[in-house]
Amino acid sequence: MPDWNIPFKLYIDACGDGLGEAVNQVQIIDDKPTEGPVCYISRQIEPKEAIYGASQMGCLCLNPAYVPLEAKPQIPIEGINITDIGTEFFEEVRESYKKDENCHILTYLLDKDCKDTSLVNALDEVWRNFYSAERFHLFDGIIYHRTKNSCEITFCSRFIINTILHECNDKIYFGHLSEDRTLEKVKNCAWCPSWRKETIEYCHTCDRCQKANRSKGKKFGLMMHIQEPRSPWEVVHMDWVTALPPSGDKSYNACLVIVDRYSETPIFLPCHKDDTAMDTALLQWSRVISHTGLFKNLMSDRSQVHICTLHQSS
User: Fold this and answer.
1) Domain span at residue 278?
2) Coiled-coil region(s) at which residues (predicted)?
């Protein structure tokens, strides 16, 4: 017999021909922990279910897997309590559809396969566009929003939406990780027309998120337009190629590359990767500037301190 105090593991699988689910549990057999099935179910896909996506197939697997455990509704499966996703939750979702005009109309249109244009036009523009694109599907009284690779439950109740946001951001197994990760979690389990905007606002108003994910550095500045040169060697690019094998009499291990923006002429100067700004300035003065003249604009990915020191040294 299964031990009702030990968590269960639920395995589900589905394909175009059939689906199956197995409820496993680790039990002590012959003084050794052994994982084995408590119950398993398998069946063929019905013709009307052939159009369902991966998420809907998963829902088909979940419902019958809970039946053998209805007598023990507090059993945790993979750390998620059955009562958290029980029939009461889906009943609350169905009831919320009756209070929302768009969802109520959608439920009628999808359930009756109705083509009444007056009802379709009664939908808000966002809902009407998604309905025209055949994004909505009805299964067991629940509206699913379907995209190319996923299918999520449609929510309209403010209480349920806030609950979903709380579960995807505040729970210990998500832990206020970041705005992007919360968006990814919500995207995979719930949908409403403004889900992205509401998720971002929720993260921005979350005190712990703002403290934990606050950027420590300065914000990046705006991009600046680079004035096109009118003659050679007015504007040059400078960069270093490092991690080279030592070579030459002075064991050079880097190369300073200077490129004229006007003519795209390159100059390659052997150097050392630990050269200072003064060393670089002397190298440029003796090998480049003495032939080309002073540059009007010098661009590099080095720090501003390095570039300023280089200009002052030159």
Assistant:
1) 235-313
2) none
